[in-house]
Amino acid sequence: MLTITEPAGKVRELSEQDIADLAWHEIATRTRWTDGVQTFRGPRLKDVLTQGGMTRSDLISRNLLMKALNDFGIVVPASDAWDYNLIIAREMNGKLMRVRDKGPLWLIYPRDQYLELQNAVVDERWIWQLSEIIVL
Q1: CATH class for the domain made up of 16-61+78-129
Q2: Please, which residues bridge with residue 135 across strands?
Q3: What is the pLDDT of residues 81-99, one digit of tens each?
Q4: I need a surface site. Which of 51, 60, 71, 118 has the fewest CB within 10 A?
Q5: DSSP state of 37
Q6: How confident is the model at residue 57 (pLDDT cuts 50, 70, 90)?
Q7: How many CA atoms within 13 Å lie on the side-chain side of 131?
Q8: How many CB atoms lie within 10 A of CB 59?
């Protein structure tokens, strides 16, 4: 479901079960692509990144190339994972997301909770159909 490539070249393949086994968290927020407040659930990005042994100090100054199923890619500062407790949502409003619903994985920022997240630069980081993370 999600491939993570670490700086040393180690590649981790996370299955749907691996994602399900992590602690899930919830963010209720508005997005540019939906109407009204939506409730998203999934593991925290920082938990996904550190599950393989990397630490916060290994990652905090790095960038993450996030890639979608269609090969779209966007660079996200790894520090966002800690500064804003981003989640990789698997559910929206209590339902598993499908590819046609921007799923199966969508990077979610708590946009309504931080004024500094309400701008076009951050909105571009909300990558949906997330399939790969490359730690730069």
Answers
A1: alpha beta
A2: 64
A3: 999 999 999 999 999 999 9
A4: 71
A5: -
A6: very high
A7: 11
A8: 20
